Amino acid sequence: MKKIFLLLLAGSIFFVSCKQKIGYINSTEILKDDLKKADSSLQLVGKDLQNTFNTGKADYDAKVKKLTDSSKLSSSEKESLRKEITEMATKLNTFANEAGQQIQNKKNELLTPLYKKLDDAVKTVAKDDGYDFIVDVSVTPFAFAGERHNINDDIKKKLK
């Protein structure tokens, strides 16, 4: 029992003697202006895609209405209209899937360089100022982190 106690005591003394320099950032706060610009661009892309989809959907709805009110259509005309409606539905579904992928690709295109630049700045500050750990509190929240460990301003300076 004494050996375990001494071992724990020695380990805790070693741990205390090895001071680690720790800092934290809030990447969302640091990048908020750039993230707003990216979001605006994504909104424009999304709006354009939505307008295109809505146009196709309106055409689809008109054909469905025509089929529903088809008392004056011949059976061959009805069959042709059903086939056309099925093709339109497939195209709309395909477009919706592709639009989602386009938005994701645009998001990656806009955000990847921002986070790369942030990562480079964090690594530079860590190296220059001797940090052992830098934590992003927007990703890993802490119950408490002293303001003296906040290095947002240092990172912002490197980003300019």
Q: Main beta sheet, described?
A: 2 strands, parallel
* Structural class by SSE content: mainly alpha
* Strand residue percentage: 5-15%
CATH architecture: 2-Layer Sandwich
Oligomer: single chain
- Succession of helices and strands: HEHHHEH
Task: Report the CATH topology name.
Answer: Protein Binding, DinI Protein, Chain A
CATH top-level class? Alpha Beta
The average pLDDT score comes to 89
Q: Helix tally?
A: 5
Task: Spell out the CATH superfamily.
Answer: Skp domain
Helix content: over 70%
What is the total domain count?
1
General shape: rod-shaped
Question: What's the arrangement of secondary structure elements?
Answer:
Layout: H1 2-17, E1 22-25, H2 27-30, H3 32-68, H4 75-129, E2 133-136, H5 152-159
Description:
This protein is rod-shaped. It has a two-stranded parallel ribbon with strand order 1-2. Helices cover 75% and strands 5% of the residues. With 160 residues, it is mainly α.
List keywords for this structure.
mainly alpha, Protein Binding, DinI Protein, Chain A, two-stranded parallel sheet
Would you kindly provide a brief summary of this structure?
With 160 residues, the protein is mainly alpha-helical.
